[in-house]
Every structure is written in structure tokens, then in C-alpha cells.
Specification:
- The protein contains 8 helices and 16 strands.
- The strands form 4 sheets. Strands 1-2-6-3-7-15 form a 6-stranded mixed sheet. The chain has a 4-stranded antiparallel sheet with strand order 10-11-9-12.
- It is an alpha/beta fold.
């Protein structure tokens, strides 16, 4: 088979997936399709919940291992779609449909690459993983599967990057911040207004600059996104509750950023989770150097992916554009899928990663 034939296979699978609603935590039918497809290629499919993976038929423990990963779930379609999000229509070389760009193109291209690369001798092993619940960082997604896999040395994540290597990715923390006051009647000078108590902390979140700025990801970013306080107009609020969206760079752990915030504000602060860390790969890694030699340009990605849950080097590289993700009338061009398979081949066929 040549690149065009592999592209045809990838597009055929992607159209089936688009026609099968697979929002996060509802991916069973899509997982069934992936499992059936993998088995139809004569490969052994492993399954845990709605995560599907297959391991190099020539797996050798002494060789390094590359993980090829993309997710099967999608967000819910936004109301501004002008076409059926579950109708995989092709018009003028463009495939429309929910999940076509994020990240069906990468999901289906990487599977074809797995077939192509494992059909000939390589100096490394491959594992292909179609993971679930990526859009919600769910507990039954990739974090459930990784302990079941052999040792992994490096991962390529097929998120849409325009086939440019995203070698760093921002992490995420969501914080609860609560300021306390004392209730009283609004008509009299009594009580302590929790909203006013919160103002200095809100200003600090807005203005504080973490000193370490990443070459690829820029500064840590903090944003107050939700505020709730008060019960009625004539009662001084005794509590002001806020949500803080924190996007960390790879120069800080989430715990380090949390400790800095907690030491500067007067409000109570707690984190929903510390698990979604910023991730990076050394720009000197052989695969990154090969990307650069092929004319690609490394950059830092502000959007979160399953990379955040990987404890090994990883980078994002996939067809499509991040700007199309989660948007109405999502699409991917067939030429982008063909280009991805061609570039993956040039990057990985015969590659030495250690």
C-alpha cells in the first residue's frame, strides 16, 4: 500500500467515527468501531473501559518504545453548527463533522502509521492507543490505561498542530478561593462585606507575575472566571466564592504555583486537582531534532491534552488546526490527512530514538 491507500483507509474510518456520536463518557460505540477496525487489520486489540490499544506484533522488551496516542471522544456540538455535526460530508476535498479535526484526523492517521511501520523492521517498538474521556480529563481515560502498558520512552500525541511539533504544553489547575466576612443589614453600618474582602485578592490574581517565563509557553496565567456572593439585596454577604483558572508553564509544578498563590492571598484556597501538569520534551530529543531537520518549527501549546497525564517525554504532532477545535462546522482537509501520514513516515520510518 502507498500513502494514498493508507489515506483512504484513514478517511473511511474517520467517517464512521463522525457518524457515531462519542461525547466524553459516551464513547462505547466509537470504541467498538476502533476495536473492530484494529482487529480487521489482523492486530490484537486490548480494551479497558472505552480505551483501545494495540501493541507492536514484534514487541521486544530490550528496544525503546514509542506511544502513538489520540482520543476518540468529542465535546458536545455547539448550537451554531449550520450542518449536521454527525454527517461526515466531503465537499471539495474537505471532510466536515464533529471530531474530524479534534482529533479524528490524528487518531486515524496514527493508526495507519502503526500498520505501516510495524510491517517492516524498526529499532523500536510501537504502541497505538485510542483513549477515552480526554476532553474532560476523566478518570476512565488514559490515566486508567498507562499502568497497563509496557515501559514507554516517548509519545507522539495526534492533536491538531498543523503538523508542527508542540514540544511544550501548559498545565491546568482550577482553584476555589473563598473570602469571608460577617453578615449584617445593608441599611446599617454593620457586618463585614465578603465581596470587599475579596477585592485585594482578585487584584493580586490579576496583577501578579510569576518570575519564570517559558521560551515556548510564556508566563503562568491566572484568571478569575466565576464569582458568587450574597443572598439578597439588603443582606451584607458573609462569603464570596470564586473560581480561578490557572495555566502553568513547564518551569513550575502545579504544587509550586498553588503554594505561591496561597501565601499571597488572604482568602481560603483549595485546588480541584494537581494532576494536570505542564509537559515538555527536550528540544534536543532525536525525534524533535528530526522534525526540525524536516523543516518543522517547534512551539508551545496553550491547550491541554492527555500529555498532561504522561510521566514520560511527549509532544503533539497531528493534522488539522487547533483553531478549528470545539467550533461550529468543524472540518479537516483530506490533503492534511495524507500529508500527516507522509510526514509521520518520514519522521519515524527507520528512526533511532536512543
Amino acid at each position: 500500500m502507498d500513502t494514498r491507500e493508507y489515506t483512504t483507509e484513514a478517511v473511511s474510518l474517520l467517517r464512521k467515527l463522525i457518524a457515531t456520536p462519542s461525547t466524553s463518557r459516551n464513547e462505547t460505540q466509537a470504541a467498538d468501531i476502533m476495536q473492530s477496525c484494529i482487529e480487521s487489520y489482523g492486530l490484537k486489540a486490548h480494551r479497558l473501559r472505552n480505551n483501545i490499544w494495540t501493541i507492536d506484533p514484534n514487541y521486544t522488551p530490550s528496544r525503546p518504545t514509542i506511544l502513538l496516542n489520540a482520543h476518540i471522544d468529542t465535546v458536545k456540538p455547539v448550537s451554531s453548527w449550520t450542518r449536521d455535526p454527525f454527517s461526515p460530508d466531503i465537499e471539495d476535498g474537505t471532510l466536515y463533522g464533529l471530531g474530524s479535526n479534534d482529533c479524528g484526523g490524528g487518531l486515524c492517521s496514527l493508526l495507519q502509521m502503526f500498520r505501516l511501520l510495524t510491517a517492516k523492521p524498526q529499532s523500536y517498538n510501537l504502541i497505538y492507543l485510542a483513549s477515552a474521556e480526554e476532553e474532560v480529563s476523566g478518570k476512565d481515560g488514559i490515566s486508567l490505561v498507562l499502568p497497563e502498558l509496557p515501559h514507554i520512552d516517548v509519545a507522539i500525541v495526534g492533536e491538531p498542530t498543523g503538523m508542527q511539533p508542540a514540544i511544550a504544553e501548559k498545565g491546568l489547575m482550577v482553584l476555589d478561593m473563598t473570602a469571608h466576612g460577617k453578615s449584617g443589614h445593608a441599611a446599617r453600618k454593620e457586618g463585614i462585606n465578603a465581596i470587599y474582602e475579596a477585592l485585594p485578592d482578585i487584584e493580586w490574581v490579576r496583577d501578579y507575575k510569576f518570575p519564570k517565563v517559558s521560551k515556548y509557553l510564556g508566563p503562568v496565567k491566572m484568571t478569575v472566571t466565576v464569582i458568587n456572593a450574597g443572598t439578597q439585596h439588603n443582606v451584607i454577604p458573609d462569603e464570596c466564592r470564586m473560581l480561578i483558572d490557572v495555566r502553568t508553564n513547564e518551569l513550575y509544578t502545579n504544587h509550586e504555583v498553588f503554594d505561591t498563590i496561597k501565601s499571597h492571598v488572604h482568602s481560603d484556597v483549595s485546588a480541584h486537582s494537581f494532576r494536570l501538569q505542564s509537559s515538555r520534551i527536550d528540544p534536543g530529543h532525536p525525534l524533535v531534532r528530526h522534525c526540525i531537520a524536516m523543516g518543522m518549527t517547534p512551539y508551545g501549546s496553550p491547550t491541554l491534552s492527555d500529555q498532561a497525564l504522561m510521566q514520560f517525554p511527549s509532544f503533539k504532532l497531528g493534522p488539522g488546526e487547533s483553531s478549528r477545535s470545539h467550533s461550529a462546522d468543524e472540518f479537516i482537509r483530506l490533503s492534511e490527512i495524507e500529508d500527516a501520514i507522509d510526514k509521520y513516515t518520514k519522521l519515524l520510518d527507520g528512526a533511532v530514538i536512543k
